[in-house]
Amino acid sequence: MVTITRSDVALMDRPTRATAKPARQLTPAQAERLAQQKQFARLVGHLNDASDVYEVRLTKDEKAITIRQRLLRAAQDAGKEVAVRRSTRGFLVGLMTPDRRSNRGRKKAAPKA
Predict the structure, then answer these.
(1) In a domain, 67, yes or no
(2) If pLDDT is split at 50, 70 and 90, which confidence band does 104 have?
(3) Domain range holding 87?
(4) What pLDDT score does 7 carry?
(5) Strongest mean pLDDT among 16-25, 49-58, 72-81, 97-106
(6) Domains held by the chain: number
(7) What is the mean pLDDT of residues 28-42?
(8) How far apart are the first and last CA of the chain?
(9) What are the contacts of 99-108 at 24+ separation with CB within 8 A?
């Protein structure tokens, strides 16, 4: 059999921001990734034409594939298509042009007569 007791109305209502738990703090690694993602978003925001090219230099503790994927993700979020090329110290980033587009993959079919 169940037991029914009277309760306080405050338990039923949603807690306000003042009584709610404080927001979790980011770990140092999470804060660094968030700052880096904002930096990449600013970089992509500065790409307005084909003459804008930026170099992203890597440190020893960063993985090239991770940084490349984060750059491409920032560009996708901004709605821009970018070309990312390796350089001696990291990556070169610029807007995608027909000359910068990769020719890997299938060859274009010849037009039918």
Answers:
(1) yes
(2) confident
(3) 29-95
(4) 73
(5) 72-81
(6) 1
(7) 93
(8) 84
(9) none
**Tally of residues, the chain:** 113
CA distance to 22, 48, 101, per residue, from 81 (Å)? 39, 11, 10
Q: What single-letter amino acid sits at 5?
A: T
> How many C-beta atoms surround the C-beta of residue 83 within 10 A?
20
21: in domain? no
Kindly state the tokens that stand for 36.
């880096």
| Residue 63, in any domain of the structure | yes
Taking the whole predicted model, whether its pTM rises above 0.85 is answered as: no
* Residue 39 counted as domain residue: yes
The Cα 29–Cα 17 span in angstroms is 27
Q: CA–CA distance from 31 to each of 4, 26, 48, 90 (Å)? A: 47, 6, 28, 22
- Report which of residues 22 and 87 the model is more confident about: 87
Decide: 107 and 70 in contact? Cβ < 8 Å.
Answer: no
